[in-house]
Predict the structure of Transcriptional regulator.
Amino acid sequence: MTKSARRGPYFCGIDAAMDVVSGKWKSLILWELHDHGTRRFAELRRGLPGVSEKMLIQHLREMEEDGLVHREVYREVPPKVEYSLTEHGLSLNAALAPLGEWGTGRIRRIGAEKVSFDVAATS
Amino acid sequence: MTKSARRGPYFCGIDAAMDVVSGKWKSLILWELHDHGTRRFAELRRGLPGVSEKMLIQHLREMEEDGLVHREVYREVPPKVEYSLTEHGLSLNAALAPLGEWGTGRIRRIGAEKVSFDVAATS
DNA sequence: AGAGGTACTTACCAAAAGGTAAGTACCTGA
DNA sequence: TCAGGTACTTACCTTTTGGTAAGTACCTCT
């Protein structure tokens, strides 16, 4: 009855890697966590302008299932939960670096804009 | 009136790269073209078990628009069209290599299966 | 007292992505 | 003559993905 799969079968390695990275915000979450080391839920939400809370936890849960992020719950009130990258999350991020450079080159080529906060924020 | 966009705005390079690679078969098309240098439409279809003709051309057209593949039409009967990677397609493929290796490692870790022809083929 | 913050969860809805199956026009080989 | 190949195109439908908005429970600050 799980709605998540992400366990193949796969055609090749790229196929398997894309499966865990595809999702509107996943690569951004990866970057955000790599950049800050560890982040709370609300910090991530603020760091990803435009993300909905629903998608944010959905993605975080899937990435936890896939062994990319670690979720540390502090049993206090108000609630505190910290997210960080696991070993596999870190290596995935490293593997994404060349792709990021290629993308930066493409942005230059086509003259695409960067997302600005006023574009991303819904209010 | 074009239904395709893929022109940003983007949060970062990975975002921009993912935009042109996301699509069920795109990375596979990239690999297939890199592997064989140049392929005809029907050769690609046979090389990607399970792909529908609709998605195959849709993806090929988008990748052509994005400057990743070159489409060479030979005005003969029966029709002959050859697809190959452009300079940018080749460099994208190179940038995907580390991701492919990471994915191969993940397949090993979770013990995922490779797609077999009987799984992929619809008839 | 009331606004706003913590981290979610849930129901409902819209848009995007992808699949099926048929049609087109012309050719080759059995 | 008739199946099967070439490279598509089109209409229709299902599945997947993502967004909205509300609710939960408890806290701090003004």
